[in-house]
Structure formats: C-alpha cells, structure tokens
Amino acid sequence: LTAPLVVAGAVARKWLAEHHGIRIRGYLSQLGEIAVPFRRWEDVGQNPFFVADQDKVPELEAYMDQLRRDGDSCGARVEVEASGVPVGWGAPLYDRLDADIAHAMMAINAVKGVEIGAGFGSVAQRGSQHGDELTPEGFVGNEAGGILGGISTGQDLEVSVAIKPTSSILIPRPSINTAGEAVELITKGRHDPCVGIRATPILEALLALVVMDHALCQQARATA
User: Could you tell me if 80 and 202 are in contact, meaning their C-beta atoms sit under 8 angstroms apart?
Assistant: First the structure.
C-alpha cells in the first residue's frame, strides 16, 4: 500500500527541487522510551533507523532485540520538514496547508498524532513565547512550523508524527470471539516490534505530495 506513495513522493520531491528549490527530509527522533536528539543530517541515511545520530544505533538495536524477546512492541516519533517553501501557499479555510498535511499523515494506519511546529508543546507556552516575532530581517522563531492561518510563511515546514506500537504481538491479550465470549488472543507469525522505524521515507513522500499539490494549486491561481 505504501510503496506507490513512496514512488510518487520521489517524483514530487524531484519536481519540487527542480522547480522551486524545495528540499524535503526527515528522521526518527524517538523509539519507544529512547529519545534521539538531532545531531546531523549526514547520519540519517547511514543506519536502518533513520536517526540523525549514528552513535545511538547500538542502543536502539539492543532495545529492538529486547522487544523481540519480550514479544512486545513500541511506538515511534518521526520529524519531517520541507525547506525552501515560498510564502503564500495554502488557504485560510478549506485548503489550509497545515490541514492537508495532517490529513495526509493521518492516512497512514499506525499514525495517531500530528504536530505542526510547537504542536502540543504550545500548551505550556505563553503568547509572548509562542508568537513568532517578525523583524525586517524575517521571523525570529518558527513555533508555528512554517504555517500561519493555513498559509506558508516562507520558513521551514516542520511536522512531527506519532506512530503507535504494533498491534500484533506475541503477548496474550484478552478479547472476545464472534459470540461475545471472553477469549485469549495471541498473534503469531512475523511482526515488526516497531513499524515506526520504516516510516520516515513514507512520511517524507506524503509531505512532498501535499507540498506539490499546493504548488500546482498556486500555479493554477497565478495563471487563471
């Protein structure tokens, strides 16, 4: 199901880069309880976890091995961004750029949360902290994640996605059968302890497709 999305996203990324100089990339920032702070982009393509700190890979491998032995699973958090997006893409209501991004990300089965910019962190912020001050040189911060009022600001689009633990695990779980009777359910076979470790390319593709869609809409409006 996701393979066609990644292929289409690759085409979109190339088109966006050639026509608008837009760059889209992402990395895994948390695996279960283990947070992996960003270190450098060069590390992302050098490991199977897509983390931006190669030194964390042994710890993540050990964590995954333990999950397999336990027959359990965990969730993950992935950050994706688009840099070079021009000012003015999107709309204030029906075709909001942030709404379309959230809609696309939530289309992936395991995704349970999407943040734009500060996201849920903005709950603890004050207006004086969250508001991105504007100066003659540009915005001072990017708490809004590159989108204000549904329209791109020219800053990087910053999206954070939460992925739930894999549902199919070896640990017995209570459930019911078709007769409504209590049963114990065990899912056997090959299952990933964390589907989030493969999500980065998929989410990059989805962001590329949404941004390209808005690029074409903007182009259509400009030539109408």
Answer: no
